[in-house]
Design brief:
The chain has about 190 residues and is α+β, with helices and mostly antiparallel strands. It contains 4 helices and 9 strands, in the order H-H-E-E-E-H-E-E-E-E-E-E-H. Strands 1, 2, 3, 4, 5, 8 and 9 form a 7-stranded antiparallel β-sheet that branches. The longest helix is centred in the first third of the chain and has 35 residues. The chain is globular. The relative contact order is 0.18.
Length: about 190
């Protein structure tokens, strides 16, 4: 007879396996998008392709990958050069006047210290826009990596925002028999 602790340990392992499967797929998507962006040639003098072209490429990616809420490309100062986001079933290309500076965000700072082969993975956190935690809360996991864009040194930072709601839904499916799902409420945007 299995004890309560053994059952719960098995449930935790099932949830961990489901989460790892989600994130492994997200990392594969990030590497694919990095590869596609690496084939682009810069036109702005800084190695970053034309924003209209970037937006089309990122929008096509987002339209075919329902598990992401946003994809952005940041220059090496943290300024968004392109961003597309999901609004219901629509994918929206953000206009240049609405792009933001993300230079102070933790994911940007940490990713700038990585080599082009490395990937940054954030903790489970609430989405922050224009310095404010979004409400209603939109849980996310950010992936980020330096992008070469045809050169030998990083020219930009690629940041897809993985939907935390998708992770929570898959966790519920992985553990329907659990006594409950424990999670931490956001404090400064971190779950």
């Amino acid at each position: 007879v299995r004890t309560f602790a053994e059952r719960e340990l098995g449930r935790v392992q099932a949830v961990a396996n489901a989460t790892m499967a989600n994130l492994a797929g997200a990392i594969a998507d990030l590497m694919l998008l990095d590869s596609l962006l690496g084939e682009q040639t810069g036109t702005a003098g800084d190695g970053i392709p034309d924003p209209a072209h970037l937006n089309r490429l990122l929008a096509q990616f987002l339209a075919n990958r329902g598990q992401y809420d946003q994809v952005r490309l940041l220059d090496l100062n943290g300024s968004e050069r392109a961003r597309v986001e999901r609004n219901g079933d629509r994918v929206i290309q953000v206009q240049p006047e609405n792009l933001q500076d993300k230079g102070e965000r933790h994911y940007f700072k940490r990713t700038t210290m990585l080599s082009a082969d490395d990937v940054y993975l954030s903790s489970f956190e609430a989405n922050v826009e224009r310095g404010q935690v979004e409400f209603p809360y939109r849980p996310t996991v950010r992936l980020a990596k330096p992008v070469l864009l045809g050169g030998e040194a990083p020219a930009a930072i690629l940041v897809p925002t993985y939907s935390g709601a998708m992770i929570l839904a898959r966790l519920r499916l992985a553990s329907p028999w659990s006594e409950g799902l424990a999670w931490r409420l956001p404090n400064q945007g971190v779950w």
